[in-house]
Amino acid sequence: MSQHLFILTGASRGMGLAMASKLLKPGNTLLCISRKTSDALVQEARQAGATLLQWTQDLAHSAVASARLNQWLRERSSAGFASAVLINNAGMIPDIGPLSEADAGDVRQALHVGIEAPMQLTAAFLGATEGWSARRKVLNISSGLGRRAMASQAVYCAAKAAMDHFTRCVALEEALKPRGAAICSLAPGVIDTDMQTQLRRAPSSAFPDQQAFIDLKNKGLLSSPEEAAARVLAYLARPDFGSQPVADVRE
Questions:
Q1: Which residue in the list 132, 156, 213, 241 is annotated as catalytic?
Q2: Residue 79 above 80 pLDDT?
Q3: Can you name the residues that pair with 141 across neighbouring β-strands?
Q4: DSSP string of the chain?
Q5: Which among 101, 156, 138 has a CA at the least distance from the CA of 9?
Q6: CA-based nearest residue to 246, from 170, 177, 135
Q7: Which residues have a Cβ under 8 Å from the Cβ of 196 and sit 6 or more positions away?
Q8: Rounded Cα–Cα distance for residues 62 and 55 (Å)
Q9: Radius of gyration (C-alpha) of the chain in whole angstroms
Q10: Shortest CA distance to 164 belongs to which of 184, 136, 190?
Q11: Of 15, 84, 102, 205, which has the fewest CB atoms closer than 10 Å, so is most exposed?
Q12: What is the share, in percent, of the chain residues with pLDDT greater than 90?
């Protein structure tokens, strides 16, 4: 049986938790990096015959997380994996409102989690696995808001736009290597998660687009975390994954 390694951030809730559950299959080793662990995943891994590791890590401290990942991967020396995948899923929206009213600490934390951590973890993953014979992929979970400006969302929009563009740059770098990794920044569509709840509950006086998010919920236009996870993982499995460094799961 082929062995496959998956490293997933933000696996404790929402689409991240749903992806983690779907990745717990025989032959898979899943390393989850999140602020909390999940007892349910432990039980699922045992039943599926999959290997599960859960690191409790606040990705606002991305240098610590990336150093730990780099060391862990170098100790594995491929370990017979046929493939190795990093999924940068974790993200956060700071308090919603105009940038002129933003709290400096909130901005800093959101950017640490939203763009600094994905870059540092990607660097650690690619550097530590460069000599592996396994097929390597990096999947960055982006957002339509990285490609569409929205008032009162400057920090989140900027982080996702940066994720798209750093992915483009890394794709060019990896294409120059004999066994370079495939990388894609993928928008997963609109999903019924805590983040959507946060957007709907934002005061309309501070968030002009609040009603649009309420309408998405009322009209049943939000995907469940499980549906979104299935589509994202199906995209990850495509033979042409990485041919477009920036993509949308709905295309």
A1: 156
A2: no
A3: 186
A4: --EEEEEEES-SSHHHHHHHHHH--TTEEEEEEESS--HHHHHHHHHHT-EEEEEE--TTSHHHHHHHHHHHHHHHTTTTEEEEEEEE------S-S-GGG--HHHHHHHHIIIIIHHHHHHHHHHHHHTT--SEEEEEEE--GGGTS--TT-HHHHHHHHHHHHHHHHHHHHHHTSTTPPEEEEEE---B-SHHHHHHHHS-TTT-TTHHHHHHHHHTT-PBPHHHHHHHHHHHHTSTTTTSSSEEETT-
A5: 138
A6: 170
A7: 190, 213, 216, 217, 222
A8: 13
A9: 18
A10: 184
A11: 205
A12: 88
Give, in order, the Cα–Cα distances in Å from 64 to each of 41, 58, 61: 24, 9, 6
* Top-confidence range, 79-93, 111-125, 196-210: 111-125
Q: In the numeric block, which tokens belong to residue 207?
A: 């968030």
pLDDT in tens, 113-159: 999 999 999 999 999 999 999 999 999 999 999 999 999 999 999 99
Give the C-alpha separation, 193 to 195, whole Å: 5
Residues in the chain: 251
Contacts of 119 (CB under 8 A, 6+ apart): 166
Angle at 30 between CA 27 and CA 36, to 5 degrees: 150
* Separation CA 216–CA 239 (nearest Å): 32
Q: Give CA–CA dist 48/41, Å, rounded.
A: 10
Tell me how far the alpha carbon of residue 133 is from its chain's centroid. Answer: 24
Q: Is 235 a catalytic residue?
A: no
Q: How far apart are alpha carbons 157 and 219 in whole angstroms?
A: 24
Give phi and psi for 195, each to the nearest 5. -65, -40
Q: What percent of the chain has a predicted confidence (pLDDT) above 70?
A: 99
- According to DSSP, the residues that pair with 30 across neighbouring strands are 6, 52
